Amino acid sequence: MRPTEEEKELRSAVRASLARHEGAAAWRPLTGQIGVAGLAVPEEYGGAGRGAREVHVVMEELGRHLSPVPYLGSAVLAVRALLASGDARARAHLLPGLAEGRTVGALAWAERGSWEPAAIRTDAARGPGGGWRLTGTKEFVLHGAEADVLLVAARTEGGTEGGISLFQVPVDGAGVRRVATVPMDRTRAQARLVLDGAEGRLIGADGDGVRVLRHVRDLACTALAAEQVGAAQRCLELTVAYAKERIQFGRPIGSFQAVRHRLADAYVRVESARSAALGAAFAADAGAPELSRRAAAAKSACSEAFAAVAGEMIQLHGGIGITWEHDAHRYFKRAHGSAQLFGPPAAHRRRLAEELGLTSAAGTATATAPATSP
Q: What is the reported pTM?
């Protein structure tokens, strides 16, 4: 899992750009000069035609800086949904703008606090003229309030697997209300989307939404795991540096054995999480059938590792770690917010157990376990 020279150069360029441009101002340099928004977009649509490993590099760096740019919602969720839909017309129309970063996409998916397709209650019905009209409420829409391209998962009568389909909804159309929410992590913009008979254009095949969402969830968890690793790594770096500078009883606190043990445990957590995240990225690029279980394992492991290391950061910084002046609280909030995004760790462990045949879909234990491990 050694990085290639191209991946090293990409990491260096992204890190340097984020150091020069703070906050949302980093989006234009990242997209215009480095082309991060189009990394996973095929070349025929103006992208670089790369894969999950390159996305992994970008997400790690964005995690280190807690960058608020709309990369996850637009370049991962929206782009991957369009690619998975198989809709040639929608791809040709929407992907070039998303690849250049001229437009920002959002995928409205979650309902009732869940990212499971079974939780979707937004209804898509055919209107008098044969078009589609969507009614329902979506939650946790990443950058949904400012998105230029809005993709919505809704329930129809078509298909054989749950009747879920994907639609493009005009962002300023009649019956569309976007409400910016105030999440715990202010660096991750989210919105609530309220649809009341909003016009929608079908993307892909009617009833194919469950397959699309499941695939997008795996790739989203893979990307988010990389972000969590980058943020956890930065927490560890800041804490180690502080342990070398903070003097107590005439010596740096990092020289005390108890502190060393805690830092060593944090290091193991970060590196173990990195292995899980990279494993999922490699599986995604290979089109491996075990992507779902590797993505579930990565999301669970990286969520818990980041939360633990962010907690240690606050503990080992002492009083300054709980002040607004220090960044520790920002990493702590990102850790707990990202742990819930796309489902909490426990939900992904259940999904992993089901993938491995350790439990039934109802959550009951099976008699035997498979010989292989994830």
A: 0.93
